[in-house]
């Protein structure tokens, strides 16, 4: 058993959970998770969350509106996985489309994870206060380490021999 496997077994935590919304940063979060999996342990669980606010629920039932939010979330997730990894996805990758509030679902999904990786859309000030911040809520409430990616281009994590 490798040292990484022993650490994962001792901590009781497994894998990396990644929040995926189709944004460039969520695609980069998937790539980061794949690079970090040898250290943190696997599998990678990619999670796309969909939620219909109460104010919009009435529209879903109108005749002529053919909208399936779960199917849309699964499509966004599949497209993001394709963009991040191409045809060769990491071994054991799990893809989930889940209904709920994004920060709550990601915190719950990462409860036994070794790490949670999310992108930040950079909403600060009033907009961040009004809309909330998934990355901030995850960082505050997750029981595992949380990696929040900022900006369009994020440097690769240092390799084993480099210093951060």
Describe the structure.
- By secondary structure, the chain is an alpha/beta fold.
- The chain has a single domain, classed as 3-Layer(aba) Sandwich (Rossmann fold), CATH 3.40.50.620.
- Helices cover 45% and strands 16% of the residues.
- The protein contains 7 helices and 5 strands; from the N terminus they run αβαβααβαβααβ.
- Strands 3-2-1-4-5 form a 5-stranded parallel sheet, with helices on both faces.
- Helix 2 links the parallel strand 1 and strand 2.
- The protein is globular, with a radius of gyration of 17 Å.
- It starts with a helix and ends in a 15-residue tail after the last strand.
- It comes from Sinomonas flava.
- Pfam families: Usp (PF00582).
- Belongs to the universal stress protein A family.
- InterPro entries: Rossmann-like_a/b/a_fold, Universal_stress_UspA, UspA.
- This is Universal stress protein.
Record keyword descriptors for this entry:
Universal_stress_UspA, 45% helix, Rossmann-like_a/b/a_fold, Rossmann fold, alpha/beta, 164 residues, 5-stranded parallel beta sheet, Universal stress protein
State the helix count: 7
Radius of gyration (Å): 17 Å
What is the fold-level CATH name, i.e. the topology? Answer: Rossmann fold
Secondary-structure element series:
HEHEHHEHEHHE
Low-confidence stretches: 123-131
Gross morphology? globular
Helix content: 40-55%
CATH superfamily: HUPs
**Overall structural domain count:** 1
Q: Major sheet: order of its strands?
A: 3-2-1-4-5
Q: Any idea what the CATH architecture is?
A: 3-Layer(aba) Sandwich
CATH class reads Alpha Beta
The oligomeric state is: single chain
Protein name: Universal stress protein
Organism: Sinomonas flava
Domain UspA: 14-150
Family: Belongs to the universal stress protein A family.
């Amino acid at each position: 058993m490798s040292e990484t496997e022993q650490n994962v077994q001792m901590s009781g935590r497994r894998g990396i959970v990644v929040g995926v919304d189709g944004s460039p940063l969520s695609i980069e979060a998937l790539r980061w998770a794949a690079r970090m999996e040898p250290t943190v342990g696997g599998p990678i669980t990619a999670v796309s969350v969909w939620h219909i606010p109460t104010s919009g629920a009435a529209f879903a039932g109108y005749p002529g509106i053919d909208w399936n939010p779960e199917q849309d979330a699964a499509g966004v997730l599949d497209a993001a996985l394709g963009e991040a990894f191409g045809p060769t996805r990491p071994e054991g990758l799990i893809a989930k489309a889940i209904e709920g509030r994004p920060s709550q679902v990601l915190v719950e999904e990462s409860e036994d994870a070794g790490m949670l990786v999310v992108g930040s859309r950079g909403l600060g000030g009033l907009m961040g206060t009004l809309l909330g911040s998934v990355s901030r809520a995850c960082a505050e409430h997750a029981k595992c380490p949380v990696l929040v990616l900022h900006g369009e281009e994020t440097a690769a994590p240092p390799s084993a021999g480099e210093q951060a």
